[in-house]
Amino acid sequence: PDDLAARLHPDDQELLKQRRRDRAAGKELPPRYELRMTRKDGTEIWMEAFSNYITYDGNEALQTAFMDITKRKQAEASAMESRERLLLALQAAGMASWDLNNQTGEVIDDEHWLPSLGYQPGEIEPNLRSLNALMHPEDFPELERAASDHLQGKTDYHNAEYRMRTKSGSWVWVMDRGKLISRDSAGRPLRTIGVHMNISEIKRAQEMLEESKEYLHQI
Fold it and tell me: pTM above 0.85?
């Protein structure tokens, strides 16, 4: 135990102390927990510990087994870093990501899209029904058609442009592109991911170009 404590990462010392205090107080503890340790060469590694009580010669003793999960933690950190880079790239391009559960309608949206429309966290329920309610009714059929064609396998992805209502009541144009990435064993859609982008400025520029063309035709 002393050798274990000596190899324990300083930031995780309190974790074991608290578990001992809770155990002494009779509290029920989760058997699995994670901590960092240091090898003899000074390398830091992540370990998953599993503790349970065993009976030996009529006495009860606490037994703990350890498993090296360093590679898993490194993979998780790498995935998180990649996700952060992707979100930064999307934000720089004026885009935001979304993740749809096709079975429940739940939408996992990044934390920047709804605030960009003036809504604060919690004001809009994170589901397809609530988000569709913000859409201009004249534009809904296009999105519905594009999504339906894609889910039926007619297109590689769905792509639609529509207006969404901001909290102030104004409308912004949105480009929405998504792709189905999983189905269940019966072929039913499970998960779709995608991005949306505010294209209001592009739409305004297109309108101005059309107006200029009309004016030139009249003179």
Answer: no
